[in-house]
Amino acid sequence: QQQVKQSPQSLIVQKGGISIINCAYENTAFDYFPWYQQFPGKGPALLIAIRPDVSEKKEGRFTISFNKSAKQFSLHIMDSQPGDSATYFCAAGTLNTGGFKTIFGAGTRLFVKA
Amino acid sequence: DSGVTQTPKHLITATGQRVTLRCSPRSGDLSVYWYQQSLDQGLQFLIQYYNGEERAKGNILERFSAQQFPDLHSELNLSSLELGDSALYFCASSVAPGSTYEQYFGPGTRLTVT
After folding, report:
1. Of A31, A93, A104, the CB nearest to B43
2. Residue A35 in contact with residue A90, Cβ under 8 Å?
3. Do B33 and A102 touch (CB under 8 A)?
4. pLDDT, tens digit, for every residue of B38-80?
5. Number of residue pairs across A and B with CB atoms under 8 Å?
6. pLDDT tens-digit map of B76-103
């Protein structure tokens, strides 16, 4: 119930293409769905996040699509660039009795070919 | 640079030993989170503190403990270390618990248990 399942494990995309990463969750108590980007040797950094009352959120080249009934959400990276090559983690968070827990997906290694 | 500092950057120790990892949150942030990142378990939430109080617990082993001090820095203590404890340990901070407040991750401490 606490799991967040992420796919694919790795992804190779041509420069200028669209990168799509998918996640699914079970626990309907989750009320926050962030995506993190992590470069080698660095900590994760928040990329974009969505709440369950919104079906889509766009920030620049990054878009989250959220399907509450299917309990799925995805990250789309438009016009993918070599600089986007990194590991991407989806996550789901919930605030409960003053504490905030975040459960992460297993991660997707994205490589954008120049 | 996220503004979160972690020391040490690398730590090599033997099985059975005890280590302490230190985290200084961003200026103004009252909430601190600890995460473990390993190849087989991925990124896992361990524990969260807010203004000195424990607020949420994740998959933290009984051999591990943490605290947040009055100056808001936090320490994660790992004892009776096992080979499987080798991982990257990240600290993150936010103004307060909850999805409204972005978590900023530090650069991590790489722990190697031999």
Report:
1. A104
2. yes
3. yes
4. 988 889 999 999 999 999 999 899 999 999 999 999 999 999 9
5. 65
6. 999 999 999 999 999 999 988 887 788 9
Record: contact A49-B98, CB cut-off 8 A = no
Q: Are A21 and A47 in contact (CB under 8 A)?
A: no
Looking at chain B, how many residues does it have?
114
What are the tens digits of pLDDT across the range B6-44? 999 999 999 999 999 999 999 999 999 999 999 888 899
- pLDDT score at B29: 95
Collect all residues with Cβ–Cβ distance below 8 Å to A54 and sequence separation of at least 6: A66
Contacting A with CB below 8 Å, chain B residues are 2, 4, 31, 33, 42-45, 48, 50, 55-58, 90, 92, 94, 97-99, 102-108
pLDDT at B101: 82
Kindly give, in sequence order, each residue whose CB lies less than 8 Å from that of residue A73, ignoring residues fewer than 6 positions away: A22, A23, A25, A33, A50, A64, A65, A66, A67, A90
How far is it, in rounded angstroms, from Cα B31 to Cα B54?
Answer: 10
Nearest to B99 among A32, A43, A104 (CB): A32
